[in-house]
Amino acid sequence: MEYTAKEVADLIKGKIIGDKNVKINNLAKIENGKKGDLCFLSNLRYKNYISKSSASIIIVNDSFKTDQHISSTLIKVKDAYSAFSEFLEIYNKAKYQKTGISKNAHISKNAQIGTNVLIQDFTYISEGAIIEDNVKIYSNCYIGENVEIKEGSILFSGVKIYHDCKIGKKNIIHSNAVIGSDGFGFAPNKENMYSKIQQIGNVIIYDNVEVGSNTTIDRATMGSTIINEGVKLDNLIQIAHNVEIGSHTVIAAQAGVAGSTKIGSKCMIGGQTAISGHLIIADRVKIAGQSGVASSILEEGKIVQGPMAFEIKDFQRSYVIFKKLPKIYKTISKLKDKFKNA
User: Fold this and answer.
1) CA of 326: how far to CAs of 278, 339, 340, in Å?
2) What are residue 116's phi and psi, to 5 degrees?
3) pLDDT of 342
4) For 255-266, what is the mean pLDDT?
5) ∠ CA(171), CA(116), CA(126), 5° rounding?
6) pLDDT at residue 340 tops 80
C-alpha cells in the first residue's frame, strides 16, 4: 500500500514541509527509517535521529524546530504521537480489505453469508450459521451450527467457534482461540469418579471485543457466558463457564477466571492472576499480576495484590516486613538467649 505525503497529510490533518508527492509504503521507528518509510517524532530524546534519518516522511509536532538539515518531508500536526497512531489504524485496516470465498472452504447450503466477506481455504461453516457483511474469516477456522458473526468481525487462522455462540460487531479473534468449548463441569458419583455435567448454554461476545491467541472461553452450563462490549483479552487466558465480564475490562495473559464469577466494567487484571469461582468483582477494580483472588471484591476502584490478594498498600507494607524476617528472627533469638542467661 502506497500513500503520498499529501494523502497522509489529508488523513491526519497536517501541514506538509517538503515534497507533497513523495511516497511511503511502510511504517518504521525513526531510528530505523529508510526510503519509503513513514516515521514520527514526539519524544525529543530522539531528536538527533531526524537529521540522520533516510525516512521519506516524518510526522512532527507543530512546535518542532531545528537548525539541522533534514532530507525527509515533514508533516506538522498538533500531536505527532496521536496522529501517527491515527494513521497506523488506517494503514492497518487497509490490510484487511480482501474479499472472496475460497473454493476450498466448506459452506453449508443453509448458512447465510453476507456481502464483502472473506472466507479462506479450509474453513468450515456449519448449518444455520449467519456470517454478516464485511466479516473476514482466515484459513482453517471452524464455525459451528447456528453461530452468528456480526458485521465487520475478523477471525484469524485456526479460530474455533462451537455451536450456538454469538459474536458481535467489529470483534477481533486471534489465531487458535476457542469460543464455546464445554465448561469444566463434573460431579462426583458413588464410586468417587466424576460424571460429566452437560454444558448446554453458549457464549455471547458483544461488540468491539478483542480475544488473544490461544484464549479459551467456555460455554455456560445453562444460559450464557458473557463478554461485554469493549473487553480486551490477552493471549492464553481461560474464561470458565457462566462467567460475565463487564464492558471495557482488560485482562493480561495467562490469567484464569473460574466458573460463574462476575467481573465489573473497566477493571484491569494483571497477567497470571487466578480468580476463584462464584465471586463478584466490582467496577474499576485493579488486580496486580500473579495475584490470587479467593473472595469477592465489592469496593469499586479497589487495588489488590498478592497470592491471596488484599489491599495493595497493606500488601506492600507487609512485603517490606517479610523481607526483613531473617534479621528480625536473629534479633529475637539473641534477645531470648540474653533472657535465658540473665
Assistant:
1) 38, 20, 21
2) 55, 35
3) 64
4) 98
5) 70
6) no
Report whether pLDDT(120) > 80: yes
| 263 neighbors 250 (Cβ within 8 angstroms) | no
* Residue 303: CA count within 13 A, CB half-sphere: 7
The pLDDT tens digits for 271-320 are 999 999 999 999 999 999 999 999 999 999 999 998 888 788 888 888 88
pLDDT tens for each residue of 142-180: 999 999 999 999 999 999 999 999 999 999 999 999 999
Segment (H or E) for 327: helix 325-341
In the numeric block, the cell 463434573 is attached to 186
What gap in Å lies between CA 248 and CA 284, rounded to an integer? Answer: 10
Nearest to 305 by CA among 324, 325, 290: 290
Helices (H), 15-71: 49-52
CA separation (Å) from 210 to 117, 172, 293, 319? 19, 5, 24, 35
Measured CA to CA, the distance from residue 105 to residue 74 in angstroms comes to 46
Q: Name 269's bridge partners.
A: 251, 287
Give the pTM. Answer: 0.81
> Residue 304 pairs with which residues in a beta bridge?
287, 311
CA-to-CA distance for 238 and 271, rounded, in angstroms?
Answer: 12
Closest CA to 267 of 237, 294, 292, 301: 301
Amino acid at 297: I
Phi, psi dihedral angles at 100 (to 5 degrees): 130, 155
Instruction: Give the residue numbers annotated as catalytic, written as ranges.
Output: 241
The answer to whether 324 touches 307, Cβ cutoff 8 Å, is no
Q: Residues 6 or more apart from 161 whose CB is under 8 A from it?
A: 141, 142, 143, 144, 147, 149, 155, 167, 173, 179, 180
Task: Work out the widest C-alpha separation in the chain, in whole angstroms.
Answer: 94
Distance CA 155, CA 148 (A): 13
